[in-house]
Amino acid sequence: MGKKYFGTDGIRGLVNSKNINGDMFFKFGLASGTHFKTQKKNKQIAIIAKDTRLSGYTLEPALVSGLTSAGMHVYTMGPLPTNGLAMLTKSMKANMGIMITASHNPYNDNGLKLFGPDGLKLSDKIEKKIENLIDKRIENNLSKPKELGRVERLETGNKDYIKILKKNFPKDFNLRGLRIVIDCANGAGYKAGPELLNSLGAKVIAIGTKPNGLNINQNCGSTFPNKIKLAVKKYKAHVGISLDGDADRIIMCDEKGEIIDGDQIIAALAIRWKRKKMLRGGVIGTLMSNYGLEKFFKSQKIKFIRANVGDRYVKEKMQKSNFNLGGEQSGHIILGKFATTGDGLLVALEVLFSLRKGKKASNFFNTFKKTPQILKNIEVKDKSIINNIDVKKSIKHAKKLMKGYGRILVRISGTESKIRVMGESENIKLLQKCLKIISKKIK
User: Fold this and answer.
1) DSSP-H helix ranges across 99-208
2) Are 101 and 171 in a shared domain?
3) Catalytic pick from 32, 103, 143, 242?
4) Over the chain, what is the mean pLDDT?
5) How far is CA 59 from CA 12, 300, 408, in A?
6) 25-74 pLDDT tens trace
7) Annotated catalytic, 103?
8) Could you give the 3-state DSSP secondary structure of residue 159?
9) CATH number, domain at 64?
10) Most exposed: 11, 173, 266, 346, by fewest CB within 10 Å?
11) What domain count does the chain have?
12) Is 3 among the domain residues?
């Protein structure tokens, strides 16, 4: 049986509709607090961070109310990258961490990402347990008046996160002489991103650092990489870094203005790690990883395994296979040696560490030839249309035409009301024809 509230990456949706409202966030807080307070016998602690959406001011108090009603002591940290929350949840030995965010989605959406005491995103099993608690009578989970939790605001979240990031690198590591453009998407990384790079001595040109509650991911950030491309050219930068709304994704740009996606970053890091004997096992990608990446790893004798879409599933597969590198084309990249989830700033540091001796970004990322890929995101009222007989027939027909020339993948989005139709092939005309067959039938 599928999950009722949780998708591929937490809970997400339109603000003040269905699950994303004050009433439901109280229930999410109460249910998750009830579950996690049984995991430790000492002081019960929950940490909350958020991105910069206006709706965060509405949803956070409701979430806090639910958690404290369950008897959890809550620390709120304000805007902080998602992996910053995960790292601090672990370092502070908290029961749980909750990130209020809708990641790369526009401002009108919001949601939650939940982390356990190990800094890992929750398993399907735990999410289902929390869902069962959400649907129970509220009175069953309320604490006695003297057992209510307390709330405290921590202002040091970003500084503590930056300290943890820098500890992963040699003390003498610096970025002096590098001119870097960083686009923070007017999101959760707008403080930590520029502050981190400045502290290492880089010449920093920061854009997307003026959030107003409504401009998160708006024509900026990793989903709008043209902005970083233009800025790199304008300021003659050595490299560009583009984050998304909660800074767990990264898309980069080399000094020539070429956009570098997640697959290309993963390929470059895998080669470097293999050469330095840091790569353990191989690399985990997803169903959306470019076919060219798979062929490249085969030629380099690096094991490559595909997981379901979502960095949580990548991490689970990494743990199961004992691999320490994995990620998605979208820029969710997990450096298993350093982190439990995707972290745009951590990945940026690892890349910049490789460029510190004057190596050009264009040379570092020039690893494999991508197979042409086309992705269509089709808006639908009901995602179950993917199970329609005629739709299934169109997918089967398209795959038959494509056999031997490339691959086609059709899946529902775990976070939006969309069906994603993706195809890869060197034969562009055939690819367009096949995708049209499927798209037309879905529409």
Assistant:
1) 124-134, 157-167, 192-199
2) no
3) 103
4) 93
5) 12, 48, 39
6) 999 999 999 999 876 656 789 999 999 999 999 999 999 999 999 999 99
7) yes
8) helix
9) 3.40.120.10
10) 173
11) 3
12) no
